[in-house]
Amino acid sequence: MTDLQASLIAIGGTIVIAVIGYNKWQEFKAKKSVERAFASTRDDVLMTPPSRDDATPPAVRQEPGFFAAGETPPDTDGQSLPAADAAADGDSAVQAGTPTTAQDLPVDELVDCLIPLALDGPLRGEKIMAAFRDLRQAGSKPLHTIGLRDGTHWEAIAHGAQYSALQVGVQLANRSSSLNEIEYSELVMALRAVAEELGAEPDIPDMKHVMQSARALYQFITEFDAQLSVNIQSNGEPWLISTLLIALEKQGFDLRPEGRLVMPDGEGDVLFSLSTNVTLAADTTSRLTLLLDVPRVAQAHNGFGALIACARSLSLRMDGTVVDDGNQPLPEQALSDIAVQVDEFYANMMAADIPAGSSRALRLFS
Question: What is the tally of structural domains in the chain?
Answer without folding.
Answer: 2
